[in-house]
Amino acid sequence: MIEVVDLRKRYRKATAVDGLTFMVRDGCISGFLGPNGAGKTTTLRILLGLVHPTSGRATIDGHRYRALERPLGRVGAVLEASNYHPKRSGRNHLRALAAAGEIQPARIDELLDFVGLGRAGRRAVGGYSLGMRQRLSVAGALLGDPQILLLDEPANGLDPEGIRWLRDFLRGFAGEGKTVFISSHVLGEMQQLVDEVVIIHHGRLVAHETVGELTARAAGGTRLRSPQAARLREALEREGIDARGEGDRLVTAAPSERVGEVAAANGIVLHELAADTASLEEAFLELTAGGGIE
Amino acid sequence: MSALLRSELLKVRTVRTFLWLALASVALVVIASISVSASTGAIGSASDDRSVAQIAAIALIFSLIGGIIVMAGEVTHGTVTQTLLATPVRERIVLAKAVVAALIAIGFALVAELLVLAITVPGASLDFHNARLVFLGILIAAPLAAVLGVGLGGVVKSQGSGIAVSLVWLLIGEHIVLLISESASKYSPGRAFAALASGERSGHVLLGMSAGGLASVVWAVAFVSFGLLVFLRRDV
Ligand SMILES: Nc1ncnc2c1ncn2[C@@H]1O[C@H](COP(=O)(O)OP(=O)(O)O)[C@@H](O)[C@H]1O
Ligand SMILES: [Mg+2]
User: Fold this and answer.
1) Would you say the CB of residue A36 lies under 6 angstroms from ligand 1?
2) Considering chain B, what percentage of its residues have pLDDT values greater than 90?
3) A96 and B14: CB-CB below 8 Å?
4) How far does CA A246 lie from the centroid of its chain?
5) Cα separation, B139 vs B113, whole angstroms
6) Is A50 near ligand 1, meaning CB less than 6 Å away?
7) B189: Cβ–Cβ under 8 A, 6 or more apart, which residues?
8) Residue A217 CA, distance from chain mean position
9) β-strand A243-244 against A249-252: which pairing, if any?
10) Residue B124 C-beta-side C-alpha neighbours within 13 Å
11) Whose CA is nearest to atom 8 of ligand 1?
12) Contact across the interface for A68 and B87, Cβ inside 8 Å
C-alpha cells in the first residue's frame, strides 16, 4: 500500500508538492497523472527516500522507504533513463545492484533475457538506445522480485513496440496481485492500462477515481431518442434529472444507466441510448485546465 | 556491510577509471625515480634518502582523487539514485565508500613505494633504513587522503568540480594560507599530510610526523563528517 499524507515539498523558487494526500491500494494498476511540472517525479522520489519532503509523509506498507528491511524486495522503481555509467555494461550495473541488495546473481541473466537485452547486457550502457536503457531499468527494478512497482514516465523514449511490451508486462505483473503505480503526462496509454487514476496539478490532488468515473465526469452525459420524448422528460424531471432537446431527441447530464432505468420504470420506448463518454484525455484536460475542480 | 563492500568494489572494478588513475600514478613515480637514479650523487645524506622516498607521495594525490571519484562519480553519472534505492541508509553507503577508497589508496601507496624502491635502491643507492619512516607515513597518509576525498565528494555536485577544487587548493590555496600566517599554515591539510609523509620526527617548516599525522586524521574525519552531513540532506 502506498500512502501519501499532506505531503509538501518546497524548493527555493517553486512548490513542487503542495499538501498532497492519496492512497493507492494493493493489487491494482494506478495511474499518476498530471501535466509537466505537476509534481509527479518529486512525489515518487519522496516515496523512494531520494528527496526529503518539507512536511508530511509518504510511506510504503506503512514504512518510510529508508526503514524498509530489504527495499529491493518490496519496491522496484523505474526512474528516468540515463542514470548509468556510460562505460559500465548493463550486466555489471545489475551485478553491483544485486550485490548491495543481497540478491542471487543468477537472477541477473534471467532478467536480462526477460527484458530482451540478453547479449546486449555485456555491452557498455553508453551504446544503448533510450529504449534499451528503459529495459535495463525495468530489469533493475525487478531484481528483488518486488510486490510494488513505481514507474516514472516509463513510456518516454520507448518505441511503439517497446510500449506494447511494457504494457503487456505491467498487466502480467498486476495480474499476479502485485501493485503498479505509474506516472505519465501522456494519457492515451494510461486509458487502456490503469484501473484508477490519481490526478495532480500544481502539486495538489485534483481527482482520484476509476477511469470510468473520470470519463463520465468530463462529458458524462447521455444522448437518447424516443418516440415518447416528452413523457420521458417529465419522468426524468420527477427524478431530479434535467433533460433538454427537441423532437424525439434528448440530451441529459445523467449517466446512461440511470436514464435507461427511469425509462424502463415508466414503460417508455427508447430508440437510441448512448453514453456520451469523452476520452480520458479530454477529461484530464478539463480537470487540469485551471486550478483544479474545486 | 560485506554485501555493500562487495557492491562498491564491483563498481570500482567494472570501469577503467581507477586503472587509469593507478597507471598515471605509476608513470609519474617511475619517471621521478628514474631521473633521480640517473643524476649521480643524488643521495648524500639521510635527509636525501627521505627526499627520494617522498617520490612515493605522488600516490597521495591519486588517493585523494580516487576518493572523490568513488563518492562524487555516482552523482556525476546519476547512478547514486539506484545505489540509494538498494541501500537507503546513506550512512552505510558513505562508510562502505570510505573503506573501499581507503583500500584503493593503500594499493596505490604500496605500488608507488615498491616502484621507488625497485628503481632507486640499485640506481641511486637509496638506504631503506633512512627512508622507512617516509614509507610508513605514506602508507598511513594514503587511506586518510582517500577518506578526505570521499568527504569532499559528498559535498560537491560532480567529480570534476571536486577534483578541480582540491587541485586549486593544493596549488594556490595552501600558498595563500602560508602568506597569511606561517604558523597556522603548518596545520593546513596539504602541509599536515606532507608532514605525515616527511619521515621527520620533528620538523622545522612542517609539523613533526606524529603531529602531522594527528592533524591529517582530524582533517580526514572533519571532511568525511561534513560530506556525510551534506549527503544525508541532499535531494537526489
Ligand atoms: N530540484 C529541484 N529544484 C527546484 N525546483 C524543482 C526541483 N525539482 C522539481 N522542481 C520544480 O517542481 C515542480 C514539479 O516538478 P516535477 O516533480 O518534476 O513535476 P513532474 O514530474 O510532474 O513533471 C516543477 O515546477 C519543477 O520545476
Ligand atoms: Mg516528471
Assistant:
1) yes
2) 81
3) yes
4) 41
5) 9
6) no
7) B148, B169, B216, B219
8) 18
9) antiparallel
10) 27
11) A42
12) no
Question: Which residues contact residue A114 at a Cβ distance below 8 angstroms, ignoring those fewer than 6 apart?
Answer: A139, A142
Minimal C-alpha gap between B80 and chain A (Å): 8
Band of pLDDT at residue B121, cut at 50, 70 and 90: confident
User: In this predicted model, what pLDDT tens digit does every residue of A123-140 receive, in sequence order?
Assistant: 999 999 888 999 999 999
Which residues lie closer than 8 Å to A174 by C-beta, 6 or more apart? A27, A28, A29, A180
Mean pLDDT taken over chain A:
89
Say how many Å lie between the CA of residue B54 and the centre of ligand 2.
52
Indicate the domain borders of chain B.
2-233
Q: From chain A, pick out residues whose CB is under 8 angstroms from the CB of B77.
A: 83-86
CB contact, 8 Å: A48 with chain B? yes
Question: d(Cα A269, Cα A128) in Å, to the nearest integer?
Answer: 62
Interchain pair B236, A85: CB under 8 A: no
Q: Are A281 and A187 in contact (CB under 8 A)?
A: yes
Do the bridges between strand A196-201 and strand A29-33 make them parallel or antiparallel, or are there none, so unpaired? parallel
Element (H, E) at B230: helix B209-233
- Supply the DSSP symbol for A63: B
> For position A292, what pLDDT does the model report?
41
Cell 527555493, located at residue: A12
Residues of A in contact with B235 (CB under 8 A): 45, 50-52
| Residue A279 reports pLDDT greater than 70 | no
Position B40 pLDDT exceeds 70 = no
Mean pLDDT, residues B85-102 taken together = 97
